[in-house]
Amino acid sequence: MNVKPNISIFNALIRITLGLTILSWTTSKLVKQPWRDSYLFVAMCGAMKVAEGIVRFCPLTAIFEKCQCMISEHDRAMDSMNGMEGLTNKDHEEMLPYNPT
User: Which member of 22, 76, 81, 91 has the greatest number of CB atoms within 10 A?
Assistant: First the structure.
């Protein structure tokens, strides 16, 4: 897997700041109520945001960008097939309707 930075410096700083804020809040809550598993889950999410900011790589952003590339490639492939749907009349340069029968 090729991990290249896919978020900006500003975005990374925001992720680090919010991640540390969430992490410190959940740590203080876990001191008072250590039996609550929800605080542990939120702490892990905050730690993940800090790690994303340090590495400057977000897996969700990478998946979204990959899906966008796949959609644009699919659109380009469908655009190239538009001429195959109907027969063109070379004299008048107009499309005849598509008849599947």
Answer: 22
Long-range contacts of 9-12 (CB under 8 A, 24+ apart): 9/56, 11/53, 12/52, 12/53, 12/54, 12/56
| pLDDT digit string, tens, across residues 63-90 | 998 888 888 887 777 765 555 555 554 5
Report yes or no: 19 and 46 within 8 Å, Cβ to Cβ: yes
CA–CA separation, 52 and 45 (whole Å): 11
CA 84 to chain centre: 33
- Cβ of 24: how many Cβ atoms within 10 Å? 12
Contact 98, 85 (CB under 8 A): yes
Rounded-to-integer distance, Cα 78 and Cα 63, Å? 22
